[in-house]
Amino acid sequence: xxxxxxxxxxxxxxxxxxxxxxxxxxxxxxxxxxxxxxxxxxxxxxxxxxxxxxxxxxxxxxxxxxxxxxxxxxxxxxxxxxxxxxxxxxxxxxxxxxxxxxxxxxxxxxxxxxxxxxxxxxxxxxxxxxxxxxxxxxxxxxxxxxxxxxxxxxxxxxxxxxxxxxxxxxxxxxxxxxxxxxxxxxxxxxxxxxxxxxxxxxxxxxxxxxxxxxxxxxxxxxxxxxxxxxxxxxxxxxxxxxxxxxxxxxxxxxxxxxxxxxxxxx
Length: 266
Prior knowledge:
Elements: E1 18-30, H1 34-47, H2 50-64, E2 66-75, E3 81-89, E4 112-114, E5 119-128, E6 134-146, H3 155-162, E7 166-174, E8 177-178, E9 184-185, H4 201-205, E10 206-213, E11 218-225, H5 230-233, H6 244-263
Parallel strand pairs: 3-4
Antiparallel strand pairs: 1-6, 1-7, 2-3, 4-5, 5-6, 7-11, 8-9, 10-11
């Protein structure tokens, strides 16, 4: 549940706090043969091509209050994609100064999205484990904003778009801004944890851990999907066609891969 807004203050000049949200999304699949791996990569290329990533990023820009000025995008060979948006903050009718008047979430790729003083990026990385049939699709999304707008507004939307098996999220506020009598402000909205800005469904579907340095305005959350239904992960014959011991082995390898990524160790 989002926290309430801080009292609005009159600033001296521009609100030059920099707020950066980094989301590393991991999707795990099982594709043991060359034909299955080809099917998996075709799925990734179709699902996360630049056209769809551009639509996602355009929605992110709208959620956080950015106006799109220009778009550049590239699908890579053999895999991967990037998109770049140049955007400006807010509308011309927005007030010239003041701290955030709304909490930054919840709800409402890189894609490189550039604000006039901020940016959004997404880069995709499909890869495969050579021996165990495990394939992992990673998407790295960075949303960095200056001024009143906050990237936390788009966090729930991004989680819903990528539906990661594992997610690593960090949020940091850099710099400071001054009020009209010269006092420094190192943050313009209350936050205790990134989990404050996720929907309640997140705690139902994910195991989450936090590492926070609140005094330094650094917040970090890792997420691990609780269930591992084989139907979601297998890019080969239907799981019911495989012997039970093979199904069990595949599920074990998939879960092991997810756990290793979540804890950052083999």
